[in-house]
Specification:
alpha/beta, 8-stranded mixed beta sheet, 6-stranded mixed beta sheet, 14 strands
Length: 327
């Protein structure tokens, strides 16, 4: 077994989530934190009792690693891997390498045999949330089609987006001009189907990626998973995805039976005795939660579902599952 797994971007929000979950993944190789930031040594608080210095990536780190994980700078990380003397697999959580030769979208839940690839792409968390949900439904109640409004949080765009949302909120409450460097629009107290022209956050590109990955995941699925229609909306929230999902089943659904089957699949199902799931309540939780499950009053084979999930936890858990296979 390789001596280490090299985590590039360990100081990102997603990198911290992977660090937190790595020990639970029972991977024998040690996790080595690294960065490709221009400021070669980034210092950050790893825990309440420890401060860690993240080293700049060098060739020796890559050659000693059994796998490289990239939460940022994936293109540069891949260039470094290609320049190394060993064929080290790279796990990309950014989606930046999807067009590279040898890149494979990973979903161990849908796969029937081990995957050998130079680049292992971890699905975008919104795409994986929807694919997981439709898989759990479709296994027991055939789904004909689905339509989704997916609400994206600021954390999906990193610390700069979170900081801007916070500053916008404070500025609006203080009747001051709001910063717009990230969104080029007012996100605070607002919902954005599209950001401003000069925004660093491009929702159409993200929406397109979700559609591409859902189509690819559907092909991996042995049971012919349907590909939903998705509209991505940026919500004024700091963390966690939420989704309003309309599902058209092949026949009239039994709502109580559907809820029971989802529970059997290990889903956190919130019935009428509980409050529906929220994006804040999903923080730190594995998988996803579903509630507000209701039949469509206007469509006999339709039903509504409300989903919530921790975007970082979804990707981190899937990445660790892939690492466990690789090592």
């Amino acid at each position: 077994m390789a001596d280490s797994v090299l985590l590039i971007g360990a100081d990102t929000l997603l990198g911290r989530e992977i660090r937190d979950r790595y020990a639970e993944g029972k991977i024998g190789a040690r996790l080595q934190s690294a960065t490709l930031e221009k400021d070669a040594a980034a210092v950050f608080a790893a825990s309440e009792d420890e401060i860690e210095v993240v080293a700049a990536v060098d060739a020796a780190m890559i050659e000693e690693a059994g796998a490289v994980v990239a939460t940022n700078f994936a293109q540069e990380a891949w260039s470094r891997v290609q320049g190394a003397d060993v064929a080290t697999p790279l796990v990309d959580l950014t989606g930046a390498l999807e067009k590279e030769a040898g890149a494979v979208l990973r979903a161990p839940l849908f796969e029937t045999k081990p995957v050998e690839a130079a680049i292992h792409l971890i699905p975008q968390p919104g795409a994986w949330l929807l694919a997981s949900f439709l898989n759990d439904l479709h296994a027991h109640h055939a789904v004909a089609r689905a339509v989704v409004t997916l609400f994206e949080p600021a954390s999906q765009s990193g610390r700069a987006a979170i900081d801007e949302l916070q500053k916008q909120t404070v500025a609006l409450l203080s009747f001051k001009p709001i910063p717009k460097a990230q969104y080029d629009a007012q996100l605070s107290f607002n919902l954005l189907p599209r950001t401003g022209e000069d925004s660093k956050i491009h929702l159409p590109e993200r929406e397109a990626r979700i559609h591409r990955e859902l189509a690819a995941l559907a092909k991996l699925h042995a049971g012919g998973l349907p590909v939903p229609s998705v509209r991505l909306v940026h919500a004024p929230t700091f963390h966690g995805y939420a989704a309003s999902v309309w599902v058209d089943f092949a026949k009239r659904p039994n709502m109580a039976q559907i809820a029971a089957k989802l529970k059997e699949e290990g889903v956190d199902v919130r019935d009428e005795s509980l409050d529906p799931p929220t994006n804040t309540g999903a923080a730190g939780q594995a998988g996803y939660a579903v509630g507000a499950i209701e039949a469509d009053r206007s469509h006999p084979t339709g039903a509504w579902f409300w989903l919530a999930a921790d975007n970082f936890r979804l990707q981190a858990d899937l990445a660790i599952e892939v690492l466990r296979e690789l090592l």
